[in-house]
Amino acid sequence: MKPTKILIGLAFVILGVLFFIDAFVAKFDVMLYLVNFWPALLILLGVFVMTKHRPILSVVAIAVTALILAGVLTKYGHVKFKAIDFGDITQFQNYSAVNAKINFGGGKLNFEGTSDKVLSISGKDYNYEGRKLNIIESQNKAFIDLSPASNFITTSREWDVKIYKNIPLELTIHSGGAKNYINLKDINLKSADLIFGAADSEIYFGKYMGKIDVKINTGVSSLKIHLNKDEKLKIKANILGSHDLENLGLKKLENHTWTSPDLSEENNYLNLDLNAGLASVQFIYE
Asked: What is the pLDDT of residues 88-110, one digit of tens each?
């Protein structure tokens, strides 16, 4: 049998097994895995090209390479860690704001406020050993940078991040093929810059003090945005996919902008700048 047919057949078998497990055994988001593991296909393709004139060697080399990749991901892509309490951070109240930046990648991210006066993170694949809370004082702000333990692409990464809800917060989140649950309802939010790749994201907004600037950029994805029905809105939306903005009772202006009918600059309101690719965007009043 030609190595080309072997490679194609092997690809179909692997995809079939993944979709079968996803359908009947356990949900683990096949498309999320494919989005994150695509560099492995380049490696296997390179091995195939180098050995394609030797069918037996090709099969053996591909199998060995696949096992090595699986071993690397097993060792570095599933790093478990205990819950970390970074300690009392009421000192942050002395700052004008805390700037928290989260570089996540793929997996599952939960972010929310807490009544406890702490910043805590728990889950999988975060570098906590010997690490202190990274605070850089600049312009009366505290900067926090949360990053993975490694740059290996993985869908097993799981973070549960909680921050003291009364801290004035400027939030930045970069995630790729991920499931994002971002609950900002009870947080003293000042601004947010949220960048998602091929993601399934759910974001909750609450009450606002002043004008809250939020930017959301997402690719081919599913996005649900929960809004407080008693708060005022200004939404600039460039969406290539579907949305239900017309159901919010907002006034449509030029340049893809929607506002609450009686909005003024003196109001407390959410100023949302949304750019979405071929996405399904749903707005939900609560």
From this structure: 444 555 667 788 888 887 888 99
φ, ψ (nearest 5 deg) of residue 58: -60, -50
Instruction: Tell me the three state secondary structure of residue 91.
Output: helix
Find, among 49, 46, 44, 42, the residue nearest to 62 by Cα: 44
The token pair at 123 is 């889950």
Q: What DSSP character marks residue 139?
A: T
Structure tokens at 253: 């202006």
Residues 93 and 187 in one domain: yes
For 110, the token pair is: 């939960």
Quote the tokens at residue 268. 């407390």
> How far is the CA of 40 from the CAs of 37, 57, 73, 124, 235, in angstroms?
6, 19, 11, 21, 39
Do residue 161 and residue 247 come from a single domain? yes
Distance CA 93, CA 91 (A): 5
Among the three residues 76, 111, 132, which one is the final residue of a domain in this structure?
76
Domain extent for 124:
82-285
Give the tens place of pLDDT for each residue, 157-187.
788 888 888 888 999 999 887 899 999 998 9
Is residue 180 located within the same domain as residue 241? yes
237 and 148 belong to one structural domain: yes
- Model confidence, pTM: 0.68
Residue 233 to residue 211: CA distance in whole angstroms: 10
